[in-house]
Specification:
Its cofactor is pyridoxal 5'-phosphate. By secondary structure, the protein is an alpha+beta fold. It is built from eight helices and 15 strands. 41% of the residues are buried. The protein binds N-(5'-phosphopyridoxyl)-D-alanine. The site of N-(5'-phosphopyridoxyl)-D-alanine (PDD) has 14 residues, from helix 6 and strand 13.
């Protein structure tokens, strides 16, 4: 069955949705995005995603084409008409249509597109019981990774390299320290502490990261926000990642070497459980 998608004010069957070939999102990756998960037909941490969207737009001097209230209505309407119980809502805003020129002018309205992806079993993911395998790869992305832009070529290539190596994902490394996964934030558990890279321009400020660290602190777990190396990660008791699509997902292997006992650990399992419970309760 065809999905209903949202394009610039209209709800359309996906086959009828159109964006111009002159859209700067297409020509220059001049756009930003958000991915919000859906559980029980409701949006997980929508305010967090709306706030980060505003920040990404502001950093790129772009106007938001809609208010937060309108954005919430569009998200909810797409979830409703497409009958999404578990899955995601993808949102993209680009600078809009203009004749091709590196410099942008005042012309054109932003382009806004939203669509849903149904993912039954998103929360009860068997990978959470098995754990993920990651490889390490150099981080060759641009320097403003705190802005959630649609220029995802390097992370896509890194993900393909991981697949070719028989792994699930890649952890990117810069100046000897892990930055993050291709589409998730990275953590280790060592010396009884949860360690994850501090916020800055080198990583995306994950909405799941913020919630999971809050949960960890509520559970009296110790959290250290600082860079860590691959060596430290390989010697850690546990490793895991967080994102809107994976929630809290254990990592059991890095570059072919087991982390801890090579199976998901108790810290990641507990954080996943409490995070999901709290987020389901607060979903809208
Ligand atoms: N990715 N780091 C990167 C590079 C990401 O692309 C993402 C999200 C995250 C986690 O952020 P959050 O917790 O807000 O989802 C960290 C989304 C899920 C994606 O591109 O599909």
């Amino acid at each position: 069955m065809s999905r209903t998608v949202y394009v610039n004010g209209e709800y359309l069957p996906e086959e009828e949705a159109r964006v111009s070939v002159f859209d700067r999102g297409f020509l220059f990756a001049d756009g930003v995005y958000e991915v919000t998960s859906v559980l029980d037909g409701r949006l997980i941490d929508f305010p967090g995603h709306a706030e980060r969207l505003s920040r990404s737009l502001r950093e790129l001097e772009m106007e938001s084409p809609v208010t937060d209230e309108q954005l919430l209505d569009i998200h909810r309407e797409l979830v409703r008409v497409n009958g999404i119980e578990e899955g995601m809502v993808y949102l993209q805003v680009t600078r809009g249509v203009a004749d091709r020129d590196f410099a942008w002018g005042a012309e054109g309205e932003p382009t806004i597109v939203l669509f849903t992806q149904s993912k039954p079993g998103l929360a009860d993911n068997p990978k959470a019981r098995e754990g993920m395998k990651v490889i390490s790869i150099a981080d060759r992305r641009w320097g403003r990774r705190d802005i959630k832009t649609v220029q995802l070529l390097y992370p896509s290539m890194a993900k393909m390299a991981a697949r070719k190596a028989g792994a699930d994902d890649a952890w990117m490394v810069e100046d000897g320290f892990v930055t993050e996964g291709t589409s998730n934030n990275a953590y280790i558990v060592t010396g009884g502490r949860i360690v994850t890279r501090h916020l800055g321009e080198e990583i995306l400020h994950g909405i799941t990261r913020a919630a999971v660290l809050r949960v960890a602190r509520d559970l009296q777990m110790e959290v250290e926000e600082r860079p860590f190396t691959l060596e430290e990660a390989r010697a850690a008791d546990e490793a895991f990642v967080t994102s809107a699509s994976t929630f809290v997902m254990p990592v059991v292997e890095i570059d072919g070497a087991s982390v801890g006992e090579g199976r998901p650990g108790p810290v990641a399992a507990r954080l996943r459980e409490v995070y999901l419970d709290e987020m389901r309760a607060a979903a809208i």
